[in-house]
Give the backbone structure.
Amino acid sequence: MRTFTTKTELQQYLAETRTNGKTIGLVPTMGALHEGHISLIQQAQQYCDVVVCSIFVNPTQFNDPTDLEKYPRPIQSDIEKLEKINCDVLFNPPVTEVYAGNEQWHLNIGELESLLEGKSRPGHYQGVTQVVCKLFDLIKPDIAFFGQKDYQQFLVISQMVKLLNLPVRLIMCPIQREPDGLAMSSRNIHLTATDRQHALVLSKTLNWVKENFDSQKLPELKKSAEAVINNVPDVELDYFEIANGNNLHPADQTTNNVIALVAAKVGKTRLIDNVVIRD
Ligand code: AMP
């Protein structure tokens, strides 16, 4: 695997790659890699000749400084994981390589900015679009791969690609889960053993809503889901929404594309998860 920490060296390498007619796939991550990230890279390997994984804990998408500080950064074990699956390129820049100074950025992503994750994490998607736009501009991938785990993020990035007319195709990859259903996340290492058990209520409730979608009214389903989650000790529900998968507005029984999404603090760790109900 080739590892680059500077833009210039990465660009030089990718220019050669492109001259040789090879396609480039990008998997942007913040590291602390798990099977979810690995599945994205493997998917990228099926579609593209050269796969670039970026590991960059992007400061501009954190609205809580403690969260940024606490974010795990096990770079050595990440490198081993990437080598094991034959990832071609790792881009692992320092913050100063990505941000020259006090840069201004604002992209009009409409309601996605103020719904669900946007509402709970003000400014988060501005930071996400800022860094992803920089990565797209630098790497110029043919295809970029993102996880369904961050469903709203996928909608936001799709919106950015449309707005700025960026020449990249986006592919959304399925959520990888632990055998008991917990969605894999870099933040799971912060869960205590008890939190870990409590956290299962999220995927269980999402599945329960999916199973009962056709037999119960939506407001009742949502209410029951909220009650079940609120009943678990040390779990603080942020939102549970049964939404239109295109715009994240609340769904009704006639909506074609339905997704249930949840965010909750389990102990001290904020987790998100979702399940597609109707595609
Ligand atoms: P992160 O490092 O958390 O920013 O995630 C990097 C990419 O991996 C994003 O596109 C996420 O949606 C994706 N991802 C994170 N967790 C999972 C998972 N459990 N399954 C599939 N993709 C995931």
The pocket of adenosine monophosphate is lined by residues 29-30, 36-37, 39-40, 146-147, 149-150, 173, 175-176, 183-186 (CB under 6 Å). The radius of gyration is 19 Å. Residues 16 and 221 are 54 Å apart (CA to CA). The chain has a mean pLDDT of 97.
